[in-house]
Amino acid sequence: MAGYISGDARKVTTHRLVEMKQRGEKISMLTSYDYTTAQIVDGAGIDVILVGDSASNVMAGNVTTLPITLDQMIYHGKSVVRGVKRALVVVDLPFGTYQTSEYEAVTNAIKVMKITHADALKLEGGVEIIDAVRKIIAAGIPIMGHLGLMPQSINKYGTYTVRAKDEAEAEKLLSDAHLLEDAGCFALVLEKIPAALAERVARELTIPVIGIGAGGAVDGQVLVVTDMLGMTNGFSPRFLRRYADLHTVMTGAIQQYVDDVKNGDFPNQNEQY
Ligand code: KIV
Q: What's the predicted TM-score (pTM) here?
């Protein structure tokens, strides 16, 4: 089964994403953290692969994204890049690697780009990190912004509930979105905010706005790959659509293997030398 644009084998670039927004073509984006998954996701025709710091949750089993380190993100980034031919690969700069100083932010950004060979980086925040964003872009590194629910700030919020429901937070988000576009970001992720606000941001900005829990009137959608494939269970936010139930499929296959080993059915005559 062919993906929507999998016939178009050209490498996706930041420039092509802006063109997609201009002609009204929606942008598809998923996370990946390893070589094998990235090969499948890329081969299926996805436009953007995010090496998200959600790796902290779904790969390492941490409760939040905060503990993952720069070196761990670099490991995941390198693995993903090796598996990708077409998609634009974006790596998250993890918590604590860009907030302390512009110098540290640029140094860490350059390190990730040099070692992973990724195409771009994603940072969470608006006015608070705008000087770091400007410096990283000045170094020639494309940046995707991230506003709304920012998981690296979860301890500040104390809740994963929908953000920017009140006027003050919505106004700040709008102003941050314009600030990020003016600073030169090539795209913006909006996480878990009211659909009407996301629609307004997408309408006002010329750069693509990619939503997760931000409704359908933005320029593209992103999900965590292990969630949409149904590998993770017990996490069911309203915005998540599960396209498979790999948890059940994998559990069944592994149970069958256990039975076959115990019964002596595996390996058979054809599976040995
Ligand atoms: O880390 C991540 O997976 C993300 C997405 C939820 C956008 O930032």
A: 0.96
Segments forming the whole domain that contains residue 250: 245-273
Segment holding 146, helix H or strand E: strand 143-148
Q: Is 6 a residue whose pLDDT tops 50?
A: no
Residue 45 corresponds to which tokens in the numbers above? 């025709």
> Exposed, middle or buried by CB within 10 Å (0-12, 13-18, 19+), for 238?
exposed
Instruction: Give yes or no: residues 168 and 230 share one domain.
Output: yes
Q: What count of Cα atoms within 13 Å lies in the side-chain half-sphere of residue 106?
A: 13
Tokens of 67: 């503990």
**Active site includes 191?**
yes
Question: What's the mean pLDDT in 53-74?
Answer: 98
- CA 111 to chain CA centroid, nearest Å: 19
Q: Tell me: do 22 and 85 sit in the same domain.
A: yes
237 and 249 share one domain: no
**Residue list, ligand 1 pocket, CB within 6 Å:** 31, 50, 52-54, 92, 189, 191, 212, 222, 224
Q: Which two tokens stand for residue 25?
A: 């073509």
What is the residue with the minimal CA distance to atom 1 of ligand 1? Answer: 52
Q: What is the CATH number of the domain that holds 152?
A: 3.20.20.60
What atom in ligand 1 is closest to the CA of residue 65?
Answer: 1
For residue 189, the CA-to-ligand 1 centroid distance in Å is: 9
pLDDT at 234: 83
Residue 75: how many other CB atoms lie within 10 Å: 18
Query: What separation in Å is there between the alpha carbon of 256 and the centre of ligand 1?
Result: 34
User: Same structural domain for residues 160 and 54?
Assistant: yes
Which ligand 1 atom is at minimum distance from the Cα of 54?
1
